[in-house]
Amino acid sequence: MSKSNEFRMSSIIEFSNIAYLFCLGIIIILYAKPNLFYGFLFIILHLMFKIYRMYLYIFTNVQTHPTLINQSQILEDLKGLNKIPKHLAIMFWGDVKEKTLIEAAQLCCWTWCFGIKVLSIYEAEGNLKQNANSLQSHINNISQQFFIHEKIVPKIRVTALDTSINYENNDLNKSDLDLDLQVNLVSREDGRKHIIKTTKNLANDVIQGKFKSDDLDTAELDRRLSVPKLSEPQLIIFFSPNIDIDGFPPWHIHLTELFHIPENYKFGYSIFLQGLRKYSKCDQRFGR
Amino acid sequence: MNDSRNNNNNNNNMINDNKILDHDNNENEPEISVNVAANFFTSTYNFFSQHFNTLFIKILRQGPIPKHIGFIMDGNRRYAKKNNKKIIEGHQMGFDTLHSMLEVCKLLGINTVTVYAFSIENFKRPPDEVNKLMGLAKEKLIELCEKSKIIKKHKIRIRILGNMKYLDSDLLEVINKAVETTKYNTGSTLNVCFAYTSRDEMTISVKSIVKMVESEQLQIKDVNENLLEQNLFTCGNPPLEILIRTSGEIRLSDFLLWQCNQNCYIKFVNCYWPEFSISHILPIILEYQVNYKSFKEKRIKSDQTMQN
């Protein structure tokens, strides 16, 4: 046996000794402190779960080619649906950028094709509300390309919801009547804060003697909270992997269907269509 | 005044959060085991599944655990129909599921459990079924307080949330008794929502605030979200972190609308409530833990905005 070979052998033995001692030490530690053992398993479990999610993510989010949606295709899809929500709400996906605004404009066109009258787009921080004008111009551009075969391009109007307007002296404008699709932009301000505002107004009315506090019931509060244009949506579609209501007006979702697809991070027509299909199958019993 | 109290609460929360991570103080930990009745020789499958579940719970306890979880117990009747049983039997089995879920939650370390037992809307059901349900509720409440081992062992406090004016005096008596006997239990809380809808709850809260303003205990400028929250039935409970609805329906049906409005995981499970088991809830907790980091960041952010 040559010298170098001997040296290698001894180093291997040494290494195996060290490894053996190391393992023994770990076993002793784990035996003395079982929580470390569970902690170790905890990390492995989380790792496995994350890998599993990545696997799902790759499967659901690899799209072949984004197909262009046209009106005739939507009309085809419409045939399969029994019922259509009157008021649809959408949770805004991601940040407010040029790209997402264009997507939102496309979404408005699809919504009109499905015969939905009111569309609410919820963006918590209120950035979308500030961009209402640019969204409107995007819609104007896109709807002209989208509705090539229509004789008259449908009127779609975007308004940032303003809950500070009093419900009594806000009659619907005449221009609202011939509107084809009303798009409301909703933010966190219209949620819990709106309820607080209404409470303050109520208290004011009670102090001034306009209203008796004993008369307050759910119907009355409902009437006061439902400013024109803020009604209860029948369906909310989330383009996010899990449902996070994130401040959507709490009063207005008591019977709303909440639709999402787990592990989906993207905005897309197929999800929108699946949401509408799910809604058309839902059967509400109203407690019975 | 309110702000400072809230601040205090936040600090407490943060201290608790830190505590979650150090588990070296083993003394206070409850003994963890899920129904240790199974024998290796008589039912091998049960034996292994129970030990697996126990291990799973122990592993999950290493991470952050939600403090408050809500269940919409839906699908008892449909389950009964599917299995050719009487409707009341379905409800009975639903109650058994609740009992075992309580145990699991307790072992996981979830302190507050809120369940939706009966909605105000449910009074629209055929009177026969409503009467039977009331009878069942009475029976089960008595059973819970007097015989239930889980309630005694884990010192669970029962609270009934809901609008009591819809209930008859008989049931009210039982409810009062149940609440009174478990009042001093400090282990954890079981909120049973009975004759409850969230809109009704919010209306009651708003009404009490308006009355406080009317009797000049409060000024209008002091009305804020915290105040409204303190007047809800769930006041004093930690914020709701997970809400689970069974039976595959995808709506909230007027349950804890205010509470689940921010920083809450909503999960729709595709099985009827009597079928709901430990193997459904553990993956949900795991998912919560994996997403906990972003969840916590959001919570801190929203707490800041709430104070401003």
TrEMBL record, chain A:
It catalyses: n isopentenyl diphosphate + (2E,6E)-farnesyl diphosphate = a di-trans,poly-cis-polyprenyl diphosphate + n diphosphate. It is found in: Endoplasmic reticulum membrane. Keywords: Endoplasmic reticulum, Magnesium, Membrane, Transferase, Transmembrane, Transmembrane helix. GO terms for molecular function: ditrans,polycis-polyprenyl diphosphate synthase [(2E,6E)-farnesyl diphosphate specific] activity. Its EC number is 2.5.1.87. Its cofactor is Mg(2+). It is an enzyme of class 2 (transferase). It holds the Pfam family Prenyltransf. Its main location: endoplasmic reticulum. One of its GO terms (cellular component) is dehydrodolichyl diphosphate synthase complex. The chain crosses the membrane at residues 12-31, 37-56. Pathway: Protein modification; protein glycosylation. Belongs to the UPP synthase family. This is ditrans,polycis-polyprenyl diphosphate synthase [(2E,6E)-farnesyldiphosphate specific]. It comes from Diversispora epigaea. The lineage of its organism: Eukaryota, Fungi, Fungi incertae sedis, Mucoromycota, Glomeromycotina.
Automatic annotation (TrEMBL), chain B:
It is an enzyme of class 2 (transferase). Its EC number is 2.5.1.-. It comes from the Eukaryota. Its cofactor is Mg(2+). Keywords: Endoplasmic reticulum, Magnesium, Membrane, Transferase. GO terms for molecular function: ditrans,polycis-polyprenyl diphosphate synthase [(2E,6E)-farnesyl diphosphate specific] activity. Gene3D superfamilies: Decaprenyl diphosphate synthase-like. It holds the Pfam family Prenyltransf. GO terms for biological process: polyprenol biosynthetic process. It catalyses: n isopentenyl diphosphate + (2E,6E)-farnesyl diphosphate = a di-trans,poly-cis-polyprenyl diphosphate + n diphosphate. GO terms for cellular component: dehydrodolichyl diphosphate synthase complex; endoplasmic reticulum membrane; lipid droplet. Residues 1-26 are annotated as: Disordered. Its main location: endoplasmic reticulum. Residues 1-18 have a biased composition (Low complexity). Pathway: Protein modification; protein glycosylation. It is found in: Endoplasmic reticulum membrane. It is a peripheral membrane protein. HAMAP family: ISPT (MF_01139). With NUS1, forms the dehydrodolichyl diphosphate synthase (DDS) complex, an essential component of the dolichol monophosphate (Dol-P) biosynthetic machinery. Adds multiple copies of isopentenyl pyrophosphate (IPP) to farnesyl pyrophosphate (FPP) to produce dehydrodolichyl diphosphate (Dedol-PP), a precursor of dolichol which is utilized as a sugar carrier in protein glycosylation in the endoplasmic reticulum (ER). Belongs to the UPP synthase family. Forms an active dehydrodolichyl diphosphate synthase complex with NUS1. This is Alkyl transferase. The lineage of its organism: Eukaryota, Fungi, Fungi incertae sedis, Mucoromycota, Glomeromycotina.
